[in-house]
Amino acid sequence: MTSEFTSKSSADSPQxxxxxxxLATGDAIDLSEEVYExxxxxxxxxCESVAPEPEEPVNATAAQAVIVQAETMQADNAVLxxxxxxxxxxxxxxxxxxxxEAELSLSQLSDLILKLIYLNxxxxxxxxxxxxxxxxxxxxxxxxxxxxxxxxxxxSGELAGRLSYCFLLTDYGRKxxxxxxxxxxxxxxxxxxxxxxxxxxxxQSTRNIGLTPTEIRxxxxxxxxxxxxxxxxxxxxxxxxxxFLFGSPGNGKTVLAKAIGTLMNECGGDIYVPYSVxxxxxxxxxxxxxxxxxxxxxxxxVSTAEVPPTLSDETQEFDxxxxxxxxxxxxxxxxxxxxxxxxxxxxxxxYYTAPLHMKSNGGVFxxxxxxxxxxxxxxxxxxxxxxxxxxxxxxxxSTGKKFLVPFEQLIxxxxxxxxxxxxDDAFLRRIRHKIPISAPSESQFREIFRKCCEQKGxxxxxxxxxxxxxxxxxxxxxxxxxxxxxxxxxxxxxxRFKEExxxxxxxLLTEAWQECHGGLxxxxxxxxx
Length: 529
Fold this sequence. Notes:
The chain is of the alpha/beta class. The chain is 45% helix and 13% strand. The strands form five sheets. Strands 4-7-8-12-11 form a five-stranded mixed sheet. The chain has a five-stranded parallel sheet with strand order 10-13-16-5-17. Helix 5 (125-132) packs across helix 6, helix 17 runs parallel beside helix 19 (483-497) and helix 18 (462-472) packs parallel to helix 20.
């Protein structure tokens, strides 16, 4: 046990207030003016702790400019966000009003309270409820139990009720806290039950998202795609299951997959993810701030008139053990291993971290560069055959117990290799949509080049692109969608080196092409066989 858990002597602990006994419900007593003022001050302090900080005054002109700027920035997103909130709103988990509704045992709640107060020294009842993220009516059961068991003592605030009590640990309470830390060092919001997590994942499944063709086309507005490809991508996205993108490198598979993720994140509606889940008293943390983007209860760009009638009521009854987030987009590449698809047990802390595919439930899981992972493709695919077919997965605790978790996400495989060389027919059958991404046509290549010039701030010259196509590309070396971006990057670097203004010329493009592809051509690498 580390030194931070060393017990303090009872002599150094603040002495409890003589008035520690609770008043019976319904009792009435006469209060002096001094005591009444103390109660009012305590209630005011509690209210001030949750009140928003006052904004600094600004002059009217500056305020108006800020408002106009904000309205301009939010104009494009307001319609999409309002529609997703109105149409695809996911009902939030309701706030529990008792321990039974919270699906927690009194022992679990008591251990969380003890560990929390141990780390903070002392806390009021309000602060305990705020950090455990349960209503005080639920937390109060644990506080009353621990006080009865002589684990807690009250230092002040007793006349305003347990909400304003300042709780301290007794010597016995510190002993109980250390025992709780020995079992599990997790301290934070109370966990939700595994069954609650399963039910919520089903309610916010990617298969339930309603996106229109206009929204899907809008997501690909910055890409140069033919209508046939968009017509195939639309149903694949709405299926909410699995997509296999394959084709030669440099033609936009990863960019296309990221655009799908952005679409789901911005237009798919918000979902809810728990801080942690409990499985037979074992804690599994799920919320990951590096992957989960928290959103406000009601988006600022949606007026109250556009919000469903039940939304404001549900927000007030929202279970704070869950975070409201945009649909997550989890991306992994060659670093993926089988261990990243299983629970990670922290032996020194006594709790688990959820695997990547559990964190991506309700969102998009992008497996880029498939086939080049540390683990052989066959082993990786065998691990996923059941989840892809049954829409659930089994995870294993350190005790050996297995439990079921949902597999409700849009999973995208992206590869430069031939699917038949990677997987067998049994696995391909379980991937619903298999979409080839081919090299751009000549007209598409010109359009991509024009867009890249606009982004770089340099004039587009169609004649130079014509010369580039005639001189450096043929049936054996097809143009790639990534070539315009790469060539312009090299041209810009050459101009900087020569201390020239960034511009295009036939000589610069030829030099850039030689830098990018010339060595490979001379060595025979990269040609189409």
